[in-house]
Backbone:
């Protein structure tokens, strides 16, 4: 086992919630090592967290447990879930956080029902502490995923946008906005380059037309919009030394972006 | 020893102060492991930090050192303090940060005066680096608390609100606001259920009357106020998928909350 | 080796970027330990990050690798750099982040060109993941700095202000603003006390005249400006229980501060 647990939450850094989850895990596995993935996920934004997990999970050692708690439905009927893929484990609420993981991997998903692997506390508002942290710690110790509960064939998947890769025209969407205000689309490089020669395209995002894909955010003069293939292989709309999301009206998550091959 | 040190500060994450404290500790005990509890405590808000420590300290392995630096009086006459309870250690300024710890535990408190366990730097503005971090590191190494200085019989305690549990009427106060804007009161579940049947109560908070204690924040339609027993056993006033603190005028820390048994 | 890597970035805590860098390092050196220095550096503010590194790097065990990624020119022509001083290593973009390190140490700087120590990913927008994290991990494993590339004699240095220590008059500048809004100047204690007796001086900052250097931020009544020798040995202008930067118009980075000896 890697003994590694990553943590992705919307808990911020003012309340001690992440610390408490780590304390719970350290009580179960004193050798566990923690890597914080993100704790300033916008409150209750499952889509944002799902995208962060998509871009990050592959960069960790085999056996890493990815614990994610963005959980607007805590205490309600949504199920707690543990998932095993070929190389990793995922633990959190079954609300779509792992949508991209399911799309990219074979997986075994379990509804967490085995009480002996949870804290057994009479509380319904902090499952991160009471259920997800202990399960992650037991997974990091090598407890087999079958031990936590029955297989689920139907874990919740978010209703995510789907890009359309047509001959000469790609239609995509802004699916994420990063800390620099860059607009990240669902247009992926590998698929795109199969339908189009990107040396001669026009990209349309809102009122904006961009004529080239640059190699760096800093290409072009400050304040000018640029398109780049971002670090996760997605087409991004950025503003050189600025924040695209603030300077382009209406370009929020869901906004359409088009790539058109020139004649 | 657990070799574990938690850190609770108002230092934020832009200045390197927390990193410096960890570096100082790593120089003294290279095997020390750190768990960040909270670093976005509102500046100088000792009450907030005291509540975070109250809710968190029990979830850590025996021997854990809880280091807390929210220290508006740094460089002044307030004393540096190290505290031992049955299972844990606490280090920080003697300004009331550990008020709840004293209330819930037998303890041995020491004024830190032994210079050989501090950095001995000629500075008066960063005792976190110069005094508290080294003392925490030496505690994590197993140095006995008696070594740091004389016993103090009178550590500073905050003037905290006290709820009144009457037959048929409980009077409490908002004592904390969490990252989701939930109002956490000092009304505790165990005491409350001894004086009242919570299946038939009315809760009054400002202009608001709530007729039931829900099982989850997400009970009731979005935007509606709900009461829940929070994860720390305190009665909370929340707004389903919203922020109670923003939608309820005047309900800041100190505001009164009443629970009345129906006839 | 200390097996210790510190991280200083402007990546915030909402995107998973810091987590990804740690995952990359853990894949190369599973025993590496991480200490977060600062991740809320203002976006692209190389001056801010350089100051944080200056104040922090000395407090870590020998052999610590200081990884810093504040990188507005990512993907452009700026070079990736690895630096060795007597006790530490530094890795990041060659944009001046290590200006103060060069000024205070003998050093060996290398342009990172050896592809086998990088991820070899076809991306130009996240060198933190693809170049700097792997190089830091290999340094933490003990790979010699000569292995990463050719020596650079001319690493980029920021154009930083220089204080003037005259007989009876010191002229300095605000070079940093900390999380409490304190104005930190480039006037250093050791140099200052050689040209002046600080028991009898007048300090002028904007419209303000302060007649004494206090021992603590909390000296003087709330809201009053005070001067202190800060924890890094620099003269600071603060407001007791307030934020100097918000109450003193025009006192931003670069503003002049004068210390005059009284007759």
Residues:
């Amino acid at each position: 086992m890697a003994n590694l647990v990553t943590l992705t939450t919307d808990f911020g850094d003012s309340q001690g919630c992440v610390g408490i989850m780590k304390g719970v895990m350290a009580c179960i596995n004193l050798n566990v090592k923690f890597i914080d993935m993100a704790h300033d996920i916008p409150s209750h934004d499952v889509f944002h967290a799902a995208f962060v997990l998509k871009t990050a999970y592959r960069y960790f050692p085999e056996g890493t447990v990815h614990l994610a708690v963005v959980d607007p439905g805590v205490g309600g009927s949504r199920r707690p879930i543990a998932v095993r893929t070929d190389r990793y484990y995922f633990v959190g609420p079954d609300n779509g956080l792992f949508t991209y993981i399911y799309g990219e991997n074979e997986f075994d998903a379990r509804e967490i029902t085995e009480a002996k692997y949870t804290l057994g506390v009479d509380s319904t508002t902090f499952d991160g502490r009471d259920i997800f942290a202990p399960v992650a710690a037991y997974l990091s110790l090598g407890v087999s995923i079958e031990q936590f509960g029955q297989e689920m064939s139907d874990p919740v998947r978010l209703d995510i946008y789907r890009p359309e890769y047509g001959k000469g025209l790609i239609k995509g969407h802004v699916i994420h906005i990063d800390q620099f205000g860059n607009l990240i689309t669902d247009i992926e490089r590998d698929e795109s380059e199969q339908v189009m020669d990107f040396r001669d395209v026009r990209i349309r995002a809102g009122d904006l037309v961009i004529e080239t894909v640059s190699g760096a955010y800093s290409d072009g003069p400050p304040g000018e919009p640029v398109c780049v293939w971002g670090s996760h292989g997605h087409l991004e709309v950025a503003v050189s030394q600025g924040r695209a999301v603030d300077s382009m009206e209406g370009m929020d998550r869901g906004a359409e972006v088009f790539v058109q091959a020139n004649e």
Remarks:
- Chain B has two domains: 4-148, 164-261.
- The first strand of chain B starts at residue 4 and ends at 9.
- The mean pLDDT of chain B is 94.
